[in-house]
Automatic annotation (TrEMBL):
GO molecular function, one term: isomerase activity
InterPro entries, sorted: IolE/XylAMocC-like, Xyl_isomerase-like_sf, Xyl_isomerase-like_TIM-brl
This protein's UniProt keywords: Isomerase
Domain of life: Bacteria
Organism: Cohnella soli
Protein's name in the database: Sugar phosphate isomerase/epimerase family protein
Domain Xylose isomerase-like TIM barrel, first and last residues per copy: 51-263
PANTHER family found in the cross-reference section: HYDROXYPYRUVATE ISOMERASE (PTHR12110), INOSOSE DEHYDRATASE (PTHR12110:SF41)
Coiled coil: none
Presence of keyword DNA-binding: no
C-alpha cells in the first residue's frame, strides 16, 4: 500500500534520525532540555508551582510574563529566591500580548504599551537569569485584521524596542499562532519573514507551538526542521491541547526531528503548555488552579515525553 503524504514525510525524518544514530551517535547522548510554561497554572503562587515542577523532575521553568505595569508581576529577588530553594532555573518568559499591548495595533497607545511591556519583561528576564522572551506580533484573542498595515506596524514597533534585547543579552523569539487566535504570523515561514523584516540582531529566534502547527503547517516535523537554527523553544501539548499522551499527537516524529536538527543543546528547550481547547486561552491566567489536576497533568506529560524519548534512543543506541 502506498504511503500517505504525511507518512512519507515521517519516514524521511525517521531515516534522517537513523542515519544520525549510525554516523554520529555522540550527537544523541544529551537529552532534550525539558521546561514548563506556568502561565496556565492561573493565579497559583510561584512557590507551589516550583514545588510541583521540581517534584516531577523538571529543572527549568518558563515564567508567565505578567509585568503589565511597573507595579505588577513577579518580583525578581523573590523569584530568584523561590527558584533557588527548589533547585530550578528560568529558561525564559512567555510574553502575553493582548489587545491592550498589541505590537500591530492601529492605536498608538497600545503599541506604546507593548514597547513598555517588553522593556519591563527583558529587564526582569535578565535579573532572574533567563535567556528569552516569547513575542507575538499581534494580539492573541483578536483573529480579525484591523487593516492591511498590521504587519508593517508590528515590525516597526518591535524594531523600536529591539535594542533592549541586545543591551540585556536576552533573545526575542517570535511565536507563530493559529489564525483562530491572531491576525498575522501563523506559520514558521511567516515567522522567518517577520524576523527578516525587523532586521535586528536582537530579534533572531523562533518559538514553535505544536498545537498551533497542527492547523497552520502541512507537517509539524518538517516545519520544525525549516525553523532551523532560529528555533529556540518548542511549546508542547497533545492534539487536544491537553497533557502529553492524552491525544493523537505524533510525538515520536517531533522528537526525532529535534534530534536531527541538533536541538538537544544548552539554551534550547521543549516546554509543555497544555492549555485546553478554545479560541482565546488567556483567561487561563486568572483561573483558580486545581492543584490535583495540575499535578497529574505535569506528571503525565513529563513521564510520557521521557518514555517516548528513551524508547526512540535506547532502541537504536543499544
Amino acid at each position: 500500500m502506498a504511503l500517505q503524504h504525511f507518512e512519507r514525510k515521517n519516514e524521511s525524518i525517521r531515516n534522517a534520525f537513523l542515519e544520525l544514530a549510525n554516523k554520529q551517535p555522540e550527537r544523541l547522548q544529551k537529552r532534550l532540555n525539558f521546561s514548563w510554561s506556568n502561565w496556565g497554572f492561573g493565579v497559583e503562587k510561584l512557590k507551589q508551582s516550583a514545588r510541583r515542577l521540581r517534584a516531577a523532575g523538571i529543572e527549568y521553568i518558563e515564567l508567565h510574563g505578567n509585568h503589565h505595569g511597573p507595579d505588577t508581576g513577579y518580583d525578581a529577588d523573590e523569584t530568584r529566591r523561590i527558584l533557588q530553594e527548589h533547585g530550578m532555573k528560568v529558561s525564559g518568559v512567555c510574553g502575553i500580548f493582548s489587545p491592550d499591548n498589541d505590537l500591530s495595533s492601529n492605536r498608538a497607545i497600545h503599541r506604546q504599551a507593548a514597547i513598555d511591556y517588553i522593556r519591563r519583561e527583558v529587564e526582569f528576564i535578565s535579573a532572574v537569569g533567563g535567556s528569552y522572551l516569547l513575542v507575538v506580533p499581534g494580539a492573541v484573542g483578536r483573529p480579525a485584521r484591523n487593516d492591511d498595515m498590521e504587519f508593517h506596524r508590528s515590525v516597526d514597533t518591535l524594531r523600536r524596542v529591539a535594542d533592549v534585547f541586545a543591551e540585556y543579552g536576552v533573545k526575542a523569539a517570535i511565536e507563530p499562532i493559529r489564525s483562530a487566535e491572531v491576525s498575522l504570523v501563523h506559520t514558521i515561514a511567516e515567522a522567518h519573514a517577520y524576523i527578516d523584516a525587523v532586521d535586528h540582531p536582537g530579534v533572531r529566534h523562533i518559538n514553535a507551538d505544536v498545537f498551533h502547527m497542527q492547523t497552520e503547517e502541512t507537517h509539524i516535523g518538517e516545519a520544525l526542521l525549516h525553523a532551523g537554527e532560529r528555533l529556540l523553544n518548542v511549546h508542547l501539548a497533545d492534539s487536544n491541547r491537553g497533557a502529553l499522551g492524552e491525544g493523537s499527537m505524533d510525538l515520536d516524529t517531533i522528537i526525532m526531528a529535534l534530534y536531527v536538527m541538533g536541538f538537544n543543546q544548552e539554551g534550547k528547550y521543549v516546554t509543555p503548555e497544555p492549555l485546553g481547547p478554545g479560541g482565546d486561552p488567556y483567561p487561563a491566567m486568572y483561573g483558580k488552579p486545581d492543584a490535583e489536576l495540575l499535578d497529574s497533568m505535569v506528571l503525565k506529560s513529563v513521564s510520557y515525553f521521557r518514555s517516548r524519548e528513551e524508547e526512540l534512543l535506547s532502541r537504536i543506541l543499544r
